[in-house]
Design a protein that fits this description.
single chain; 231 residues; alpha/beta; Rossmann fold; Arc Repressor Mutant, subunit A; four-stranded antiparallel sheet
Length: 231
């Protein structure tokens, strides 16, 4: 079995040690860099399946480092999760626009980080032996969401829902544990030339919760931040 290597880039030694310890316990191989400049010397960077990246560091910022990675053909597809104390929505949107796969605010729990890490790796590490459409199917308990067939089933029965509801559900279950802001949901699900208000997201979330029955409770609300799917 191939070793999954993760790079942690953060100028706080204690956080690096905690992340390294817990990721290694989970079976990953972990390297640590205490600055973006140090990380750039860890060649080849393409060896890493994921980079956990701080934003605010002494010299080069995490955003600048991420832009360098995304501009290089050898590293542009490496998933990035930002770990940062910059907890306003504009910074989160900026990070995601650079091409990051997730954005986690400090202080964070290790359980939250591990959930996000596993979710990103499930999406990005595709076994070579599995080239069928089945690799894209997401199953959580008795819920199955098929991005290719555009269907969701509960206990084997298809859930009838309009396109917007399905796309919101797909967003949430594709990144369990991650919180999506209303603005992010609007920008991903609704066309850019369509004017809608935040309340539209709330209405669709309410409908989804009802259609998912007991699993509807797993669609969680983080006041002031947005919505996520908890596992």
């Amino acid at each position: 079995m191939a070793v999954t290597k993760i790079l942690v880039v953060d100028d706080e030694d204690t956080l690096c040690e905690v992340l390294k310890f817990n990721l290694e316990i989970a079976g990953f191989t972990v390297d640590v860099a205490n600055s973006a400049e140090e990380a750039l010397q860890m060649k080849p960077l393409s060896q890493y399946a994921l980079i956990l990246l701080d934003v605010m560091m002494a010299q080069m910022s995490g955003f600048t480092f991420a832009r360098i990675l995304k501009a290089d053909d050898d590293t542009k597809n490496i998933p990035i999760i930002f770990l940062t104390a910059k907890d306003n929505e504009d910074d989160m949107v900026a990070g995601l626009n650079i091409g990051a796969d997730d954005y986690i605010y400090k202080p964070y729990t290790i359980r939250n980080v591990m959930t996000r890490v596993n979710a990103v790796l499930r999406r990005t590490l595709t076994p070579a032996v599995n080239s069928s459409a089945e690799k894209n199917v997401i199953t959580i308990e008795n819920l199955t969401v098929d991005p290719d067939a555009k269907t969701a089933t509960l206990n084997g029965k298809e859930i009838k829902m309009p396109r917007k509801e399905f796309e919101i559900l797909l967003m949430l279950v594709s990144c369990p544990g991650r919180i999506f802001s209303r603005n992010e949901i609007l920008s991903r699900v609704w066309e850019q030339n369509v004017v809608v208000v935040d309340r539209v997201v709330d209405v669709n979330i309410t409908r989804l919760r009802k259609k998912l029955g007991d699993l509807g409770n797993k669609i969680i609300t983080r006041s002031g931040y947005g919505y996520g799917f908890e596992i």
